[in-house]
What does this fold into?
Amino acid sequence: MIRGPTELRFHARPRELKHVRAAVKREALAAGCDENAAQDVMLAVDEACQNVIRHAYGPEHEGDMVLRIEQQEHTLVISLLDFAPPVDPSKIKPRDLDDVRPGGLGTYLIQEVMDSAEFVEPPPGCGNLLRMVKRVEGPKRSEG
Amino acid sequence: MEHSVREEAGALIAAFSGEVDLENSPKAREILLDCVGRGSKVLVDLSGVSYIDSSGVASLVEAFQRAKKSGVDFALVSVNAPARRVLELARLDKVFTIHETLADGL
It folds into this structure.
């Protein structure tokens, strides 16, 4: 059975992220991800939240994020909405891994573990909306 | 995140456990850079780390680079599956010296 969407609204602060990670992993496992895939999805969402905290809101702004996790037929669709000033997606690029330096890995990790991750048009009055998709086998169906 | 630092066989061993994330990676960075500043050999024990994100990895990279500049031996030991996965994704498993066990690193 496909579960209904789960939505979490939380302050864009580092201390919130452990709760977000726990919720994401729980949902990913319920959607049929194995342990490794669920860990990957959790990492991607955590990194996306960090990008919002560090770059979209940055030190000058504060606000909320809304995470929506929706299970579809063979995919997990995760949307992360913020209310920060709009970012220019063309300026968000994963860095070259041959350039070993601290930082700049988050976007690369998201793209590496998710099947897709792209900014889409947010609802009016909102900041940015990142949509991430992960293919999953789907939950085990009960017989009869 | 919990941590401890101890000295054994001429090495400073910084052991971390729990989740190394955006909230506590500044503390991890501070501990690692302090060890690199004090020791000639630093081993970072990640056996208890259940999760590490890019900010935690950045702390390791910064300490590694500081150690390299200062001529300090720097290695990771007992990297468990969740941390190893992130290091492999970032292709840093080929950059860091990684020992399977603490005994191997000493």
